[in-house]
Amino acid sequence: MPSTRSPRRRPDDARRTELLNAARTVIARDGVTAASTRRITEEAGLPHGMFHYWFSTKEELFEELIGEVVAELRNASASVTSKMDGDSDAGLVDRLRAAFEVVRHDEQRQPGRQIAMYELTTLALRTPALRDMARHQYAAYREATREATAPWLADNDVDLPGGSQALCELLAIVLDGAVLAWLADPEGSNPEQVFTVLDALLARAVPALRAEPTG
C-alpha cells in the first residue's frame, strides 16, 4: 500500500479519521492545492495544532489517504467480481466492466473523489519525496486487477507475450484510462464501447475467450 512511513497511532484514532475525512472533502470539493493543513482542520472542526499531533506532514496524510481510498475501491471491486466467480457466462472483460462501475458509482456518490486521486498522483510525480506514493498507488491497482481476474486466469491458459502478468497490466491500464476519459468527458467518452472492442481483440489472441459472448 502507498505508505513509506509508519503512521502515528494514538489510543483513540477518532481525530485522525476526522482529519482524513476532512482532507477527502476539501480535496474533492476544492482540489489538492486548496488542502492546506489549516483548511483541513477547519473542515474537521478541530484546532489547527491538532493536525501535527496526528501527522508529521501534510504529505504523510496524503499517503495514508491514497492508501485508504485504494483499499476501499479494491474491497468494493473484489466484492462485485467475487459474485461473478460462479457465473460461467462472465468473461474476463466483464470483470473489468464491473470494476469500472464500482469506480463510476464511487464518483457519482462522492463527486470529485476520483479526480482528487489523479490530482494526488500528479502531485506525487512532481514531488521527488513523494514519488513512491504514486508508484505504490499503481502497484496497488495492478494487484487489484490480478486479484479480480485470478479466478478466470486459473481456469484458462493465456498464450500471450508476457503471459497473464502482461494481460493483467493491460487490463489495469485500460481501466485507468477509461476512468480518466470518463471523468474528463462523461458525455463524449464511451467506456462500454472500449470494453467491447477489448473483448473482441482478446478473443482473437486468447483461445479460451473465443467461445465467450463479447459484450
UniProtKB/TrEMBL annotation:
PROSITE patterns: HTH_TETR_2 (PS50977)
Keywords: DNA-binding, Transcription, Transcription regulation
Transmembrane segments: none
Domain HTH tetR-type: 13-73
InterPro entries: Homeodomain-like_sf, HTH-type_TetR-like_transc_reg, HTH_TetR, Tet_transcr_reg_TetR-rel_C_sf, TetR_C_31
Record's protein name: TetR/AcrR family transcriptional regulator
Ranges of the DNA-binding region feature: 36-55
